[in-house]
Each structure stands twice: as structure tokens, then as C-alpha cells.
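Sequence dictates fold. Below is an illustrative record:

_____
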Amino acid sequence: MKKVLYLSVISLWLAGCASNIPQTITEAPAEAIFARQVQQAPDAYNGKQVRWGGEVLEVANTEQHTDVLVLGRELKNDGEPVKNSPVDARFIARFPGFREPSEFPQGQRITVRGVLSGVEVHNVGEYPYSYPVVNVSDVYRWPKKKLRDHYPYYPYPPYYGWRPYPGWPPWWAYPDYPYWW
């Protein structure tokens, strides 16, 4: 009976550690293709499988599809875009049908996997910019990371020399402290 209980606790614990990132996002394609390469020679990469990611700049809906303009960033091994890494290039992530623009707020980090379908030229300000287009098969929206706004509390930190009760010597009163001297 105890073995069953231990095994169930261990399996629940391990299941809690499992990632919810789709396997298609975590696995890199066989050939590493960058958006800058596609901008320079779009015909050479047409129909190739890519995994790109970055930060959402804008969402545009048309009658047939939804275009999400993404500022391409370097990806970690698991496919997560590295914040403040050098910009690869902008690209368009094209989804079939309608996607709610609130699903992709500006600045959210996403990773997409899909097939390249050429290059489209749109203006960035007054400058004509070549956007590689990815027909998306899988997408993952990365959650915002929480920043700690406090330090952990230690009830009696020895480095302050604080004494919890009279007669207790402070940290510097120990004859062999610090230990590396």
C-alpha cells in the first residue's frame, strides 16, 4: 500500500514538472534559416520549414487571414525569444482566418513554426521593408515573467550582528569566523 502511495506522489510531482510548451515549438527544424537570409534571397527558401520568434509589433486582419508583424529575436534552445537580443529581422506570421487582436498584444513574445511563402514589401515609416511571410502551423505565446519585488526575509541574519536574546554572541564573536581565513 505504501509503495502505491509513494509511486502516485512521485508521478504527480513529475507530472507537475512537465512543460506545456508544444513539442513542435521546442524542436528546432533541421536547417537553421534566419529572416535576414530570406530577405536577401526569398526564392531560395520558399516552402522551407522555420521556427522563428520575437516580440509582436502589430496585428492586421484581412478577409482571408490575420497577419501578425513580429520583431524577430534570437531563440533559446526551447524556442523562447531572448529579450533584448540583437534583432534578426521583422517578419509576418500569417494565420488563416480571423484571430482576435487582443490575443497578440504589442510587446508579447511569441514563437511560431510554419512554412515560408515568400516576401512582402510594406513601409516602415517611409522606408520600404521586405517582410518574410511564415504560414503558421503552430504558435506559442510566452507568459510574462514575474519579477521579484522583495528580498526573502531571514528571521535572524548573522551578518547584521543581531542577537535574538541576551547573552547570544554576534557572528563576529566566533573565534574561527570567517571560515576561509
Summary: Residues 2-16 form the longest helix (15 residues). The two ends are 53 Å apart (CA to CA). The beta strands are 49-61, 65-73, 87-96, 109-124, 127-141.
